[in-house]
Amino acid sequence: MPDPAPATAVEDTEGHGPRVCDDMTVEVALAVMAGARVEYLTVCDGDDQSTGVITLVRLAVLRESSEYTDRIRLRDVLDGRLPALSC
User: Fold this and answer.
1) What's the CA gap between 31 and 24, in Å, rounded?
2) Reduced to 3 states, what is the DSSP secondary structure of residue 43?
3) What is the pTM of this model?
4) What digits encode the pLDDT tens for the residues 52-78?
5) C-alpha–C-alpha distance, residues 11 and 3, integer Å
């Protein structure tokens, strides 16, 4: 009998989790991580060049902070435009 468990997301060729665009919001990124069952995402710019890796823990801490708004993009998190958060 086949295994009924859903498959997890396929990692990129560098092995850094699913690739997402840097203009994605934190809320959408958290939903992608939950759906793909991964702990991190590879963030890419408009030219599909990797700009960094973002973790579930980092985004969860940000979402619970007083600095969080629903307009924060992944590029803002990676560029250090936000105050340092302790994760």
Assistant:
1) 11
2) strand
3) 0.75
4) 999 999 999 999 999 899 999 999 999
5) 21
